[in-house]
Every structure is written in C-alpha cells, then in structure tokens.
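Example with several molecule types.
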Amino acid sequence: MAGTVDCCCGGNRLGVPELPEVETVRRGLAPILLGRTVASAEVHHPRAVRRHKAGPADFVTRLRGRTLQTPKRRGKYLWVPMDGDDVLVAHLGMSGQFRLSGPSVTTPHIRVSLTFTDGFAIDFVDQRTFGGLSLEPVAADGVPVSVAHIGLDSFDKDYDLDRAVQRLRARRTQVKRALLDQTVVSGIGNIYADEALWLVGLHGERLTQRLSRRQASAVLTAAHQVMAAALLAGGTSFDSQYVRVNGNAGSFDRSLNAYGREGEPCQRCGTAIRRQAFTNRSSYFCPRCQQPPRLRQTTRRGP
DNA sequence: ACGAGCTCCTGCTTGC
DNA sequence: TGCAAGCAGGAGCTCG
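Resulting structure tokens for the full complex:
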C-alpha cells in the first residue's frame, strides 16, 4: 500500500546497512524531510538516543519546532541539518531503518518517532539497537562532532585515492582490519571488505605495511566498485509509490562472490570458499585465489 | 599514539 | 519438544 514501506531484508540475512544502504536511505529521506518542521518527537527506547549526552527529554525538547534540511552522509553516518546550530545525527548500526509511520504500519522495535507539523510522521526502527539518533554541534567543516574523526568515504568529492593508499599502508596491521577501520577510509563493512579482498586476490591477513602501492590502490578501488554497484542497484529499485527509507539495497543481492558462501565454489577457480573466525565475526575467502601470508612477522602459519 | 580485544543487543538457527 | 549456545557485526571503550 502506498505510503508504507516494505520490510527490510525480505528474508535476506545480509541486511546490515553499509555505505550503499545508508546512501539509499539518505536519498529516500531527502524529499521527505526537506522543509518539514518537527511538531513532536517521542523516544520509545532510551538506548536509541544514548549518544545524545543530555538525555531523551532534552532530545525531544530540542527537536520540537526545528525545520529539517537535506540529509548528508559520510561513511555510514547520516545527519540532517536544521535551522539552528546543531544537527540530527543518525547511525543505523546493524538493523536501523526509517519508516513512514501510519495506522497501517505495525512494526515492532520502533525506538523513536518524529511527527511533523503537517501530520506526516516517520519512525526510527531498530531491532538490535546498535544504531541511534543524537543532536550534536558541527565541527568547522559542517560535519557533526561525532563524525569528524572518521575518514572520507570513496564517494566523497574530496576523496583522494593516493592519500587513502598512504593511510592504509601507514597502518601496522592486517589489511582487513585496516579496511574496517573507519578512520582510514569510511563506509566499508565486513561484507564489502571480504568482497574487495576477493576481487583483488588478497588475503585479509596480509600486512598493510607490506602491501605495494598498487595492491593498496587495487583493494580500495575494488571496495569502491563493489559499493558503487550495490548503490546503483539500490537506486534503481526506488519506487516513488513506495518510498524506500529502510536501508534495503533493493533487489540487488550484492552479487556476492565470497561473503556468506562457505563451501561454495569460487567463481574464479572453483575452489571451495572458506570461512574463518575474525574478531568475533567471520571472514570469507578463496584459499587458492587469496593466499595467506606465508610468514607473519613473528608467527609461522600452518599450511 | 596506536592496535587489539571486549561489549553492547535481539532474533534466528543449530545442537543436544 | 524445549532449552541453551552460537551467530550476525558497527563502533565505542578499555587496556597494553
């Protein structure tokens, strides 16, 4: 039904919002928020505003009467400039969504609701409560203070690949860890890191300081390409009748080559994709295309 | 200053 | 059948 929003994952467990999903949400929100004035805000779960230091009551009070402008994004952070000095910052975390509110919408896990002066309303829905909203001042460049520490993402007009390559190679860690470090380049999560590494045939345990410029450049470029493809698919799935503001990258299944494909044949060489524990999560890679480093600095790997 | 590891959270899946 | 453990993972935090 028009005016409602379909569910986030459609059974796809890969619903975690990374840069393309967040950008899709931003584009969906833009025409909805621009020029609307908040009549009231309601915090249903205090954890959703835990990054708003002054607390839920202050959050609600300060939002009232504010007129919203076009949302902006860096990496996986969204923020909405408003009249006045501060901005509304949103992070979707693992499961955050914005949904158009209405009597026909029966959604559990509504954490925050915003109602506008024209009666229109949206909900911030977040099952796992890793996401949240806050009101924050902005730093000198117009970026919220909590976002200022992360690096530019590869879609930013000021993004400089050479500088990103420098930062990546300056780290003293494994390349996958560095790709997930939002202060190096923002926007890359576990899924796109694995896909980028598969594309360029690098094992995630390769040490950043031993990557050539060419290798570092290739993996960053690959990450951008995978995210660009997902963004394109998310964009084409837009339907003005059913405004998608929920982080679903549409019908695109992200054409994943490695992530989540344990035991399936590698699309390049046919070797079974392997899953490996990685800091409380998983890494997926082709053991043939992505050879692990033979020698670690102090530790020898097994075969 | 930097890097590693832990923690927060909920619902689905798997194993006993 | 029912319960418990495992798994998913972004980012802030602490510790070395």
